[in-house]
Amino acid sequence: MTNEYKEKESKQMEGFDLSFRNPEVRVWITIMLPSFIIASLLLFLTDIPSWYATFALPFVSWISFFIWRFLYKRRQVKDSLE
């Protein structure tokens, strides 16, 4: 194995930083946690006849998080190329 290959492999295997210093974790908690709380309250405290209406909120939040993540990663790549 060449030294360049080892460096590239170690960068790929750094892992995921699960802390509030990571902006992806902060945004996920900011978007998803209130969404799950509101959906739980709607599910248990209201008489909404269709359960899928209650689960639409977390689903839309999940999609919005991944749209934000895609744009964030694209901006990171763009900034690293400059």
Topology summary:
Elements: H1 3-12, H2 23-45, H3 51-81
Question: How is this structure best described in words?
Answer:
The protein is mainly α and 82 residues long. It has one domain. It contains three helices and no strands. Helix 2 packs antiparallel against helix 3. The protein is elongated and about 55 Å long. The mean pLDDT is 81.
**Main sheet overview:** none
Which structural category do the helix and sheet elements fall into?
Answer: mainly alpha
Please bin the fraction of helical residues: over 70%
User: How many beta strands in the DSSP annotation?
Assistant: 0
What's the alpha carbon Rg, rounded to whole Å? 19 Å
Order of helices and strands: HHH
Jot down its keywords.
82 residues; mainly alpha; 3 helices
Quick summary:
With 82 residues, the chain is mainly α.
